[in-house]
Amino acid sequence: MLQNNQQTQNFQNQGMNNFTKSNRFEQNQVAHNDNNEDFNKILQGIDDEYDDQFMPNNQESQKNFNQNQNYNLNIQTQQQQNNFQGNQLQTFQTPKSEIGNINFPPTNGNLPPFYNNSPQIMNNNFNSPAYNNIQTNSLRGSQTTISNRPSGSISSNMLNNQQQIPQNAPNREILEALVQKNNELKNEFIYQFIKIRQTNQYQPGIKKKRYQDNSLYFGQVSIQGINEGKGMYMVQNGDIYLGDFFQGKFHGYGVYIHHNLERYEGEFQFGKKEGKGIYFYNNGDVFNGQWKNNLKNGQGYKHSNLTNDTYTGLYLNGKKHGRGELKYGNGDLYFGDFVNDVKEGKGKLTYANGTIYTGDFKNNEPSGNGTLEFINGDAFDGYIANGNMVKGILYFANGDQYEGSFQLNKQHGQGVMRYSNGDIYEGLWTQGEKTIGKQYYPDMQIQYEGEWKNDTHWGRGKLVWLNYDGDYYEGEFRNNKKHGKGVLTYKDDNGNLVQENVVFVDDVQQQAMPF
């Protein structure tokens, strides 16, 4: 195990991105000549064992295929065959760019950028009937046949151009999907198997075991017959594991390919993902980080293909938990606390439009005490619920200041507005508009108290001239002017209180009558 661990560490330090170019196989050709016979045994059995394990029953499939003689399924085009025939002796030494641009993140613990995944391995060259007898003299130094399937095997029949199947579109689509998925998984499996081969020399003792649940082990075993060393394990449901075994369990470095083509590459301990590992989702997402008990635990990095979001931070039991940074595809950026996959606790959210919130979060939203900084220079300090200002102080860039209640981020309810010129309004607001309140104008030494509309005196109100011993007009207003009927109260030259019924039109008195 010490040797295996050292080999695993060396492989991780290399980084999977270095696994490129055709000479990656030739470089190992001489080093592994002493084990080529064992390696050949494993490769030689891959194709037949895979078909036996996962393809449909031969007789049943033939019966279904032959129900209608009028439809010929051309799964493999002539162009694909020609492409394959020109490359069949080079399949295993094809440069990386020719086998689907598979970009594997480094496994040295550094958090990588996002990688293209969901590879189409080897351009499906293995789909060709020519694959029945592939010769790989470039791989092993001598011409050797990997697989020589009986021409009547199910997978071979499915790939023949003239196979008869029912002329039924849904059935045909199901069959094509089955063939495509089977070949993708097989090609991915073979590629991963060969890739692991490049980093470790196989030892004698290759065995094949088939279990009662129809799963299959193919690889090294201990003297006691326990799966130990390097090998592959094919699960009845279509999953495949390739890598290190110890005491019959996945242990060390390995690759686990799910039947839906999702893939984990990294460290295992006693049958579970544990340590550093990379997980490729079939929707294009990628996770690279720490694992424990088959779940993401510790530092990790994840890129979401659909939204282009990226998260770098802590995980607990498979969920974002602790401090982390989440970059959204729309340009928003959050740094702070997570609890069970949601933003919760203290954090800072910078929106793509330049707005910055710093403070409490709950259920993924700014909630609690916090501050908002707007790109226009305005700022808010107070209580926020579900991302909206509720109560606090709003500082305007021009020097104005509002303190009070909010609804949907607008002044709503009771509040005080202090203007930079010294004016002060105190009263009720409705969705950012003054409705009923009192405003003091120090420059003009007047005070208005009453109804408002469009930020002007409008409706019933009272206007007091503070520098005229408290003279006032109480009545109707429109657009900041006395307009309509009202009562004018003032003191005459003798100091007597006088009240007049008056009518104003746009601040111009029309008539006066004794009260």
From TrEMBL:
Keywords: Repeat. InterPro entries: MORN (IPR003409). Coiled coil: none annotated. Signal peptide: none annotated. The keyword Translocase does not apply. Pfam families: MORN. SMART domains: MORN (SM00698). Gene3D superfamilies: Histone H3 K4-specific methyltransferase SET7/9 N-terminal domain (2.20.110.10). PANTHER family: RADIAL SPOKE HEAD 1 HOMOLOG. This is MORN motif protein. It comes from Tetrahymena thermophila (strain SB210). The lineage of its organism: Eukaryota, Sar, Alveolata, Ciliophora, Intramacronucleata.
